[in-house]
Amino acid sequence: MAYVHTQLDTDSLNNPLIDTHIHIDSYPVDQQLSILESLPGCEVDTIISVSMHLGSCQRNLELARQYIGRVQAAFGFHPEQEIPSPAAINALFDFMESHVDEMVAVGEVGLPYYSRLEALSGGKKWDNRPYEDLLEQFIIIAKKHDKPIILHAVYEDANIACDLLEKHGVTSAHFHWFKGAPETIQRMAESGYYISFTPDLIYEEEIRELARVYPAKQVMTETDGPWPFEGPFQGQMTHPHMTADVAAAWAEIQGLDQPAARRILYDNARRFYRLG
């Protein structure tokens, strides 16, 4: 079955969706505004815009203030980058503390699985400890302010993240675009952690299998835009409307009609992000 975004049927009109992980600030400025203006027309209620670094946090805050309710800003540091200087880390933490009431979540934070893999495959040395230490500091901030945390932690890195979450008693964790071993999946599910599916749910069997087994009350939709996708999305700009295709694929996997599936995914996201 092909899932390409089309006009929604009448039965789904009261079931909007939420893009729970997108880097809206990473699009060109004209695309940022075009995407945000278009959301009501494609029945996307809200986006959770995650941050890459301090400048990214600042732009996401601007957009959240301009598009109140439509953009929810998360503040963090993407781990697939070099560790910043202590001064830069402190500046980021100061910003987060100063704008904690406008921060829907801590994120995107996590561990550099792909950077580490690339370095080791190239014969380079790798020290993961600074990344683990930085992640722990973000988890402490999430605990201090009772905020959800959005994690980039896949495969074996997810176990390190779970250890740190358990150490600090943080239970509101969202592992975006997750991949991992069955025992890790079970651990995360039993801990109450949430995951989210991107458009590759339509064509990646590993992700489809995850969607078959993960608890329905702990899953959400995302795009991770502007990251591009393959399959029916080849050559397309990643847009939050693709969450409708994700929902359709999840509905088919779960044996649900689309309105029911959309309602579950929407309610999950609003509950996790405490959107009322």
* Cα-atom radius of gyration: 18 Å
Q: Which quaternary structure do these chains form?
A: single chain
Order of helices and strands: EHEHEHEHHEHEHEHEHH
What share of the residues does DSSP label as strand, in percent? 5-15%
Shape: globular
Structural class: alpha/beta
Rounded average pLDDT? 94
Q: How many E-type strands?
A: 8
Helix content: 40-55%
From the N-terminal CA to the C-terminal CA, the straight-line distance is: 35 Å
* Low-confidence regions: 1-13
> How is the main sheet built?
8 strands, parallel
> What is the number of helical segments per DSSP (H or I, 4+ residues)?
10
Q: Strand sequence of the main sheet, in spatial order?
A: 1-2-3-4-5-6-7-8
Structure overview:
By secondary structure, the protein is an alpha/beta fold. It is 43% helix and 14% strand. The protein is built from ten helices and eight strands. Helix 3 links the parallel strand 3 (71-75) and strand 4. Helix 9 packs across helix 10. The two termini are 35 Å apart. Mean pLDDT is 94; it is low at 1-13.
